[in-house]
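Re-run with default settings, no changes from the original entry. Doing this only to confirm the output is reproducible before filing.
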Amino acid sequence: FPHPLCIQAIIYPRPPMHEITLNLHLHTRYSDGFVSHDQVAAAALKAGLDAVIVTDHNVWVDGPEEYYRKNGHKVLLLVGEEVHDQARQPQKNHLLVLGAGRELATYAYDPQLLLDKVNQAGGLAFLAHPNDPASPAIGETDITWVDWAARGYHGLEVWNWFSEFKGHIKSKLHAIYYAYSPTRSACGADPEALRKFDDLLASGRRLVMLAGSDAHALPGRLGPLRRTLFPFEFHFRTVNMHLLLPRPLSEDSAQDAALIYAALRQGHAFIGYDLPASTRGFRLTVHAKEKIGTMGDEFSAKGGITMQIKLPLRAECTVFKDGQPVKTFRNRDLCTYITSEPGIYRVEVYIHYKGKKRGWIYSNPVYIKN
């Protein structure tokens, strides 16, 4: 007689399984970046991405949003915005605005008003680098998010490549070292941002975690030394978002953009550090009595829950419940966790790279209710 889970697989549709790789939080010459939209797309094509989202500071650029193609490959370039109040001193409260389809920087002076306008436009709002301390050695100031009374955002950027790089720079020598050894700078999502994310979930919020490259292709200069920090193609091979869609991308950029934004809104996504090894193929599948689902979905604890975690290769995997680790699997590529306890569950996976244990995969949460 068939196993009950097999019966469920027949009765209930499978969760979205078409995986794409997306890099977001990018800057061009329209703000403080040093490349054009065409160059962003060219780098994304070389890196094998499916989509990128450009987010220039306080300017929504209308026009370059489309598919770019070369040698039989394509990448969808979308345009959002990183909004902050330029008149505020000191600078704080950077907000990634995605999918709004209009200029919203005029509302930056009031974070709550800005969030309201994003939602009215049908867009998504994510707190950019919510914990971003200063790095005086390279002239970078603290641009942490501080207006925690605001409501209406959809998630947090828990891993920002450039913020993490800044955090390593205690002197000019550190700057030179990491400029020439960029593969050693990424260790994982920001612990403080993860704690804040878990605390917000515990307060009843439904939020999505993001990772952003915060790419600029900055020209670094120290005496006779010249170095680009960091080329876009390098960024695109490192920390990415992996989205699970209900169908493959098509040739219609508007329809495909809607699919991408829906997956981000629903939390059908995970963060993958693709430089040590590709994270493509990671799956967190939840089998409940009433349905089968994945990250971002809600389930009833009645009858028990089985979480199946599939990793692209053997690694260390930890299951978190309400922000606390409850089970660690070591040297496994398939992990099963069974529970009947309500809570908010997510997964972190670690890999050894360049002599150090580093964050490799961060799933978005699943919600287990009574």
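Residues 1-12 have pLDDT under 50 and may be disordered. The chain has eight helices and 20 strands.
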